[in-house]
Amino acid sequence: MCDTDRAERLLSLFTSSDRAAAIAGDLTEEREHQGGAWFWLHVVRTALALWRSAVTDAPLGVIALAVMGCALFTGPAFGGAAAVNLFPQSLGPPASWVTLACFWWGGAFCIGASLVALAPRYGMAACATLAVAGEALLIAFGATAPWHGLWVSEFLPFYVTGLVVAAPVVAGGAIARRGMNAGAILTLEPGLEPAPGPALRPRR
Amino acid sequence: MSSALNLGEFEQLILLAILRRRDDAYGVTIRAELADRAGRQVAPGALYTALDRLETKGLITSRMSDPTPQRGGRAKRHVTVTAAGMKALTRARQMYERLLDGLDLLRGAHV
Predict the structure, then answer these.
(1) b/e for B18-38, b at 16 or more Cβ within 10 A?
(2) Are the C-beta atoms of residues B27 and B52 closer than 8 Å to each other?
(3) How far apart are CA A126 and CA A132, in angstroms?
(4) Which terminus of chain B, N or C, has less C-beta within 10 A?
């Protein structure tokens, strides 16, 4: 896979597949004069700009989706915590934390995919917003929590497992989004409709 | 006046750059035109989100061209200004002219 393909994949998380391809093509065209560092800097900056644009276009919708994702996550969150705390005899420490990670990361992955399936146009923006907000809250909590209470106790595995939850949320959303860009569900949302004609021809 | 017809300065610059490039207006050439003529180094992300916004307002339309090898086999998204876009630009210019009427900014008479 070349850099243009990778850039297009990243950009298509936040815009329609034909527009993502055109932007990746523009950046590839300018890469000859500007260099690889410029290319990747602007791929990332453009993806961030598209994400911000999605949030500002429909702030209430994105926030509602993110809150819904947060509410849905309480299920796997309590499920994982219960599995670790209610059956300490049957689950030794390593098995406990693997179980917790399966509940939390698996749940987060499914929630990311569900948000994109529910709202193809703004679901990915909601996933990214949820992931960033969750990480920020956890990091702020970690920075302000009493050191002896957080780092020396058995709370630490919960904290570390929670810090990684953002990744499966985004991964679930990204995989669902890629599936939609490739499939027929695209036609449900005007912003995701592929352009007719040349854009759909096979690439060289 | 419709809010779609109230253009910001950046939107006006983009519409003018599109008009100048006629049939060859896409991301790269619009950025080059803005850099050459207006001295503005516009970030690609800012340009693409502004183009999306202008298209949503109905001030421009876009079409995809044939893919080319030097672009990694990707098509260009060519944009053109619509009649509503022309009307919005005309209104903006008339507004400036009314405000500038009687002022002589170039000679510094009002500094």
Answers:
(1) beebeeebbbbbbbebbeeee
(2) no
(3) 10
(4) C
Q: Are A26 and B78 in contact (CB under 8 A)?
A: no
Contacts of A18 in chain B (CB under 8 A): 64, 75, 77
pTM as predicted: 0.81
Would you call B52 and A22 a contact, using CB atoms and an 8 Å cutoff? no
Q: Where are the alpha helices (DSSP H) in A14-58?
A: 17-34, 36-57
* Secondary structure (3-state) at A117: helix
CB of A153 within 8 Å of a chain B CB? The answer is: no
What is the distance of C-alpha A126 from the center of its chain? 8
pLDDT in tens, chain A (204 residues): 688 899 999 999 999 888 999 999 999 998 888 888 999 999 999 999 999 999 998 899 999 999 999 999 989 888 888 877 776 665 556 777 788 888 899 999 999 999 999 988 889 999 999 999 999 998 888 888 766 565 666 677 778 888 899 999 999 999 998 888 776 444 444 444 444 444 444 444
- Residue indicated by tokens 């991964």: A171
C-alpha span between B66 and B77 (Å, rounded):
10
DSSP symbols for A170-185:
HHHHHHHHHHHHHSGG
